[in-house]
């Protein structure tokens, strides 16, 4: 239930070593770091070597009941939701300060856990800090309204917490996705957070810092375990009022169906197969560099990755040569090395998935323009892979691979580009590159996606709503819309005596 491997060869911050020497990775329930009642554990695997470096508590139904009961008690007695708004803000700001003080630790943990590049995890930490600061200011900004009514009554519409919120997060940005729980706290909810089983460490630390920041016991609980046991149990639990889930479409559908039995409010941020569209009037050099970065970043394990690269036929060959040149300059290696441009995928399972899809693409008749195989024989590395000769109907163009695989598809007209871009079940994000302002407006309006970037890609800010359309889910995180997702309105009617 702790780190068991020798990590002396890793360039970890001293604060990280101190933390790893002291902690036994477990659940944070009712303000305490605890192990599973059964004593069961799960391995922590370091993706760049594929070796077990330690263990974390593996929860079961008994542990889940402890966590949900603690959250329910804390909500019902009002120890958090009834605090004065500015008091909530002070404690959330203190949490942000503690997070910042432990930024190097969070970055190291996410690199060890997920195999994310160390420079990338630094960016994740800064993004998470922005989210903490943003949501820390919300408790005093959540206001109600007084609608227009007849002269005999006054109606106050208040915005109140949902209750106990279960947050199930993925493994591709562990330190940041914890922010979804902080948003729920800002709204006065109590939280049970289930991190991905592949990346447990950041969540444990965050649970500990929440207690140090003055978040009352039971308000922010962290429970580790598998999706089949803890995730499914959290969704089905009658004392959980809402679920926020980020992950695959398949799992999202099961969560939606299970949550219906108890009429839970469910917000789903699911997969993507984002179209990155390049017209022949774009600036090819920066466009091609961005096309590569939009897929190879985090080894393609980003739901908004621009994996379908649609290029107008007049620049198709030149553009792909530029993308390949950008790709060939990438160094594959240890995520801790500053020279590395592509690290491992998160697990052996994910490596097998990517390998399988490359085989599917070749069987469908697509051609490997670059890459196409595993890199090395240690760890979970896969070469950045570009497919040409792709029809949009192929599985590699329709299904989310979640790895470093790009499909390139030529098009002739604006109308054809829009048709191809929309011809998938997903609708999370898209990109459009053109120097024609009218075309930029037309195409961005026509693409069915929750986010469209024009002459840029992947930018996110806390004040801007984020979420998908179609099978990419519903509900919005970030911005004021996320506050609406995590609260509910109550109308209080008062008759005025004459």
Structure described in brief:
This protein has about 500 residues and is of the alpha/beta class.
Topology readout:
Layout: H1 14-22, E1 27-29, E2 32-34, E3 41-46, E4 51-57, H2 61-76, H3 85-101, H4 103-114, H5 118-136, E5 153-161, E6 164-168, H6 174-177, H7 179-186, E7 190-194, H8 201-212, E8 220-222, H9 227-236, E9 242-246, H10 249-260, E10 265-269, E11 275-278, H11 284-296, E12 308-312, H12 316-328, H13 348-363, E13 367-370, E14 385-388, H14 395-398, E15 405-411, H15 414-422, E16 426-427, E17 429-433, H16 437-446, E18 451-454, E19 469-470, E20 473-474, H17 479-485, E21 487-495
Helix pairs in contact: 3-5, 3-8, 4-5, 5-7, 11-12
Question: How would you portray this structure in words?
Answer:
The protein has 498 residues and is of the alpha/beta class. The chain folds into 2 domains: 14-270 and 473-490, Aldehyde Dehydrogenase, Chain A, domain 1 (3-Layer(aba) Sandwich), CATH 3.40.605; 275-461, Aldehyde Dehydrogenase, Chain A, domain 2 (3-Layer(aba) Sandwich), CATH 3.40.309. 38% of the residues lie in helices and 20% in strands. The chain has a 7-stranded mixed beta sheet with strand order 13-14-15-12-11-17-18, with helices on both faces. A 6-stranded mixed beta sheet has the order 8-7-6-9-10-20, with helices on both faces. The longest helix is centred in the N-terminal third of the chain and has 19 residues, at 118-136. It is globular and about 75 Å long. The termini are far apart. The model has no long low-confidence stretch (mean pLDDT 96).
């Amino acid at each position: 239930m702790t780190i068991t491997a020798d990590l002396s060869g890793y360039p970890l911050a001293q604060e990280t070593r101190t933390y790893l020497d002291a902690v036994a990775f477990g659940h944070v329930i009712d303000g305490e770091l605890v192990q599973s009642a059964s004593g069961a554990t799960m391995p922590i695997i370091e993706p760049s070597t594929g070796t077990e470096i330690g263990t974390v508590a593996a929860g079961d139904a008994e542990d889940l009941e402890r966590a949900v009961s603690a959250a329910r008690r804390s909500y019902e007695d009002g120890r958090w939701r009834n605090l004065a708004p500015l008091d909530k803000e002070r404690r959330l700001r203190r949490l942000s300060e503690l997070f910042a003080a432990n930024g190097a630790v969070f970055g190291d943990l996410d690199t060890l856990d997920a195999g994310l590049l160390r420079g990338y995890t630094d960016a994740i930490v800064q993004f998470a800090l922005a989210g903490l600061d943003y949501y820390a200011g919300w408790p005093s900004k959540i206001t109600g309204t007084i609608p227009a009514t007849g002269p005999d009554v006054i109606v106050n519409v208040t915005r109140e917490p949902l209750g106990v919120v279960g947050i199930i997060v993925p493994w591709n940005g562990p330190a940041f996705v914890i922010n979804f729980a902080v948003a729920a706290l800002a709204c006065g909810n109590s939280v049970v957070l289930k991190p991905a089983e592949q990346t447990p460490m950041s969540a444990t630390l965050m649970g500990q810092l929440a207690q140090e920041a003055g978040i009352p016991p039971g308000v922010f609980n962290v429970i580790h375990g598998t999706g089949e046991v803890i995730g499914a149990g959290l969704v089905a639990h009658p004392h959980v009022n809402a679920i926020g889930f980020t992950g695959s479409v398949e799992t999202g559908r099961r969560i939606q169906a299970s949550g219906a039995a108890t009429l839970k409010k469910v917000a789903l941020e699911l997969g993507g197969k984002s179209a990155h569209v390049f017209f022949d009037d774009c600036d090819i050099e920066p466009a091609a560099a961005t096309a590569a970065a939009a897929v190879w970043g985090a080894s393609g394990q980003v739901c908004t990755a621009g994996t379908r690269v649609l290029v107008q036929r007049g620049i198709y060959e030149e553009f792909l040569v530029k993308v390949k040149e950008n790709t060939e300059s990438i160094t594959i290696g240890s995520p801790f090395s500053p020279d590395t441009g592509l690290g491992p995928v998160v697990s052996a399972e994910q490596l097998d998935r990517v390998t399988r899809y490359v085989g599917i693409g070749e069987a469908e008749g697509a051609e490997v323009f670059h890459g196409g195989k595993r890199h090395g024989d240690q760890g979970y590395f896969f070469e950045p892979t570009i497919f040409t000769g792709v029809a949009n109907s192929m599985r590699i163009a329709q299904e989310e691979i979640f790895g470093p695989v790009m499909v390139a598809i030529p098009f002739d007209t604006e109308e054809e580009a829009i048709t191809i871009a929309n011809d998938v079940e997903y609708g999370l994000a898209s990109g459009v590159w053109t120097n024609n302002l009218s075309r930029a407006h037309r195409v961005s309006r026509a693409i069915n996606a929750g986010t469209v970037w024009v002459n840029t890609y992947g930018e996110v800010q806390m004040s801007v709503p984020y979420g998908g359309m179609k099978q990419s889910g519903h509900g919005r995180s970030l911005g004021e819309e996320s506050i609406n997702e995590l609260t509910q309105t109550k109308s209080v009617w008062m008759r005025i005596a004459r």
